[in-house]
Amino acid sequence: MNQRCDNMKGLYCRAAASDAEPKFVIQETSLPEVLGSHQVRVQVKACGLSPLDLKLLGDVGIQRDLFPVGREVAGVVQQVGPDVSFFQPEDEVVGILPLDSPCSGLCDVIDIDEHYLVQKPEKLSSVCVAAALRDGLCAYTALHTHARMAAGHTLLVMDGASSFGLMCIQLASYHGVKVLTTSHSPQKHTFLEQLRPSVGVQDPLVARVIQVYNGSSDLLPLVLEETGGLGVDIVIDSGVRLQEEEETEETKLLPHKHDIISVLGVGGHWVTSHQDLQLDPPDCRLLHLKSASVSFLNPEVWTASSAQQGRYLHILRDIVEKMSTGVLRPQPEEAVPLYEATVAMETVQRHKKKKAVVQL
Question: Do 42 and 130 touch, CB atoms closer than 8 A?
Fold first, then answer.
């Protein structure tokens, strides 16, 4: 039976003028009575919150007064459109809403095209997968799609204790890659040291943890020491400093771009999440000498283009399967109720590496 869903509440962003912070507001919304041919109506159980990239939305031509917030969802299928072939009512599903979705993932019920969803393994909690799905997708894209990692490679992950960094470490270790990482605080260093080799642990996740929070600039000598002077095959950053004089609270722990290029080995891959990276002629010359490459990690590319939809769904299935079997163990996020979603999203938007998940 087709059913109209009235008076649902969702979270939306009202873009601010100039450099003012965007405002997040709870708005009432509703769904159409009739589902599209390939649409699935899903009752949302949990929704992950990630920073909203308003500049990217503008770049791809999406302009609205209110932008829906919350796109990583886990829930249960209520109803399916006439041409849906992958799902049926009562199926548990997970997925990421596309950039142009009119729905907020924090609504009780949403409509989403079946080609953005995969089955959720029964023993995987909705809160866990909604909180970690985006970071898992980013790690998979960085390591498999961009860096073409293989057993025997050496990887340097910047800020390995972040949710994204931890996903990279676990995925790489599973595939036989030797992992080095940096720690951005004493607490993060302690956490990462627990992943190193110890008595009784046959397959450590991390070979070396390098401190960067104490003002030390030992990154290059320590990486060269650990790799026999060859450098690493892959570097995954969490942002970079473009100029030596940049010293804000946010950037002082980030490596300079020259440091990253210096630790790369011959034929190495640098995967960056820095959107405005500028490389000067000396940087390019050093990359050329090493025959190294730079790739830009844009996690939205899969849902912004349908050209590789099948590959994207394969990746999502692999990620949730690896979470279900314990290959990927995301850091647990404490779920917040819907009435705290506005405050949680404001925190996520200000501190880009923060995560939050709302339980509905």
Answer: no
